[in-house]
C-alpha cells in the first residue's frame, strides 16, 4: 500500500460512496500522485500529512479542471453524436474518462476540506464551479453534481477529529437543505 493510499485510508476518504463505483479511477489517481505526496511529506516532515494531502488534491483538481476545460468542445461534440445516433437512453451509458477522474478528484478534495474543517462557503463555491464545469460534459445537472460534491465535504467534516461532539446548528441547517 502506498503512502498516499495509507493517508486516504487513515482519514477514511477511501470509504466515500462514489469511490466504489470508480475504483479503477481511484487506483489511477493514487498511482499518478503518490510520488508527489511522498516527496512533499519527505521535504516537510513537521507538517501534518493531511495538509500535504490537501496540497496534492488541490494540484490534482487544478490539473483535472484544466483537462476538462481543454477537452470541453470535443466532449460536447462526442456527446451530441451519441445523442443523435444512439438516443438519449443509450448515450447516457458512455462517460468520458476525464469527467470521471475530475469528479473523483473533486470528491476527494472536498472531503479533505471538510476533514480539515475548512470554510463551508469556499467549499460550496468549489463544488458549484466544479459541477458547472462537469455538467457541460455529462448528463447530470449542475445542482445535482454540486449536492453530491457537498455530501463528500459533509462526510469529511463529520469524520474529522477536529469536529465537536455535537454538530453546529449551521451544519444541521445546511444538511436539512440538502437532504
TrEMBL record:
Highest taxon, organism lineage: Bacteria
Source species: Vibrio ouci
UniProt protein name: Uncharacterized protein
Amino acid at each position: 500500500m502506498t503512502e498516499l493510499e495509507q493517508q486516504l485510508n487513515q482519514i477514511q476518504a477511501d470509504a466515500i460512496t462514489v469511490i466504489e463505483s470508480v475504483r479503477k479511477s481511484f487506483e489511477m489517481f493514487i498511482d499518478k500522485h503518490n510520488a508527489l505526496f511522498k516527496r512533499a511529506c519527505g521535504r516537510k516532515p513537521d507538517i501534518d500529512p493531511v495538509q500535504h494531502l490537501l496540497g496534492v488534491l488541490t494540484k490534482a483538481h487544478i490539473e483535472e479542471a484544466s483537462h476538462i476545460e481543454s477537452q470541453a468542445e470535443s466532449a460536447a461534440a462526442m456527446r451530441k453524436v451519441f445523442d443523435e445516433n444512439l438516443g438519449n437512453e443509450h448515450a447516457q451509458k458512455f462517460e468520458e474518462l476525464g469527467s470521471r477522474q475530475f469528479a473523483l478528484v473533486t470528491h476527494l478534495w472536498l472531503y479533505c476540506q471538510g476533514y480539515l474543517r475548512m470554510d463551508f462557503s469556499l467549499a460550496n463555491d468549489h463544488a458549484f464551479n466544479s459541477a458547472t464545469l462537469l455538467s457541460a460534459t455529462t448528463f447530470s445537472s449542475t445542482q445535482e453534481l454540486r449536492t453530491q460534491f457537498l455530501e463528500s465535504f459533509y462526510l469529511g467534516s463529520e469524520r474529522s477529529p477536529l469536529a465537536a461532539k455535537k454538530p453546529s446548528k449551521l451544519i444541521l441547517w445546511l444538511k436539512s437543505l440538502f437532504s
